[in-house]
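Two entries, shown back to back:
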Amino acid sequence: MRNILNLLVTLIVFWVGNQYFNEYLSVADVKTLVIASVLMFAIRFLFSLAMALSVMLIVVGVGCLTTPALILASIVLTPIKLWLLDKYLSGFEIHGFWTYVLLTIVLSIFTVKVKSKQDK
């Protein structure tokens, strides 16, 4: 359920950006909007799998090297995903450095997190 909500939040953020801030973020059509959101979701999902695998590999000793690298990569993962979409998805354009920064912040704020039982 959390993954579907995150996918919908990404879709809404891109749609709002295209509708109200189209000089900074432009999406050609609905198909491109959906593809961009699904690609952001897929990259996030693959990164989650890589992080889980890396943590499991700590037992073997290899995870001690990969886990810190993945944690550092997570800091810049959203801007990298946005840059890849801008570069390789035709019809999806981001204009300006500060647009990347703002989109990264907005997507980070509106990402749905799961509460643990300790937080209740």
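entry 2 starts here
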Amino acid sequence: MLKIPAGRIGEWKHPRYGSIKMTQQTFTDIIRNFKEKTIGRDPFIRIGHDKADDPTFGSSKAEGWITDIVQEGDHLFALADPTNDQVAEMVRTKQFRYASPEYQNNYQDKESGSLKGAVLEALALTNEPFLTKLPEARLLSDPADTFYLDHEEVKRMPDKEILDGINQTNTLLSSFTTKLSDFFDKFKPNATTTPDPAAVVVPVVSEETKKLAEQVAEQQAQIKQMTVDSTLSAYVAKGIPPAVCAQYKPILLADSGEKVVKLSDDKTISVSEQIYAALDAFPDAARIKFAQEGQHGTPPAAGSPEEVKKLADATMKELGYTITEDGKYKL
């Protein structure tokens, strides 16, 4: 597929046609009329503007047929199927880097006579476009679509989320401990008297205390989940296959640290520590090259929240997560 610029919002002064102006309304009309097939045919790609000087008008062959017109910011693009390998090669090798639209500002329908607004009739590949500051024509399958990152450039999930969760858990634990202490103080026997066994009352834990204990357990589970996710994201960034990390994840989540493995040198290690040690020892030859799909445009600044979020989303998708509308990860 060819992706060819068809215009941008702006104004130009033409020596023959006077003021040429493309607005948001121009783009809206062009897209609408394309979808409604207002001109009664598909617009096409030609080489250069030979329409006006061609004595055999209508003989220009199509180098490609436009299948869609899309807007990206202030620019309009046409997506087209090339009709031959040569035109695709000329775009790929930058023999033709730009394009010039052939459009009418207010097209008159040939059947009804009504005015339909702006329509795109054709698009010419050229290195001398009149419209300035247009993006370059390109192939959607260009290698530029995929850029490779060094493993260390792939950021792990923000540690701030984990720290915030730990602080919240500590607050809950502190409150829970205080409530339990106050609760059991009420049932301490008086040291000056001998308690009557028949009068001993079994303390009943209040619903409030139970709820607080449940909140602590739930918060600890969330911290465990975020910690494991973050650590495995870092391993994926280092080239460990996501499928391997996904296999280890349930074991890491279930490990409470109580079960240990006794090594041959009589040392002991927890299950989680042994798994992470195995991932650290993963051979370089078996590690994968981390790639991310991209497009032309200005990438987010290194270390910016946008870059961290984008890389975190890509990593979590590799681990099998989906991203909800509110930006959370769901397995």
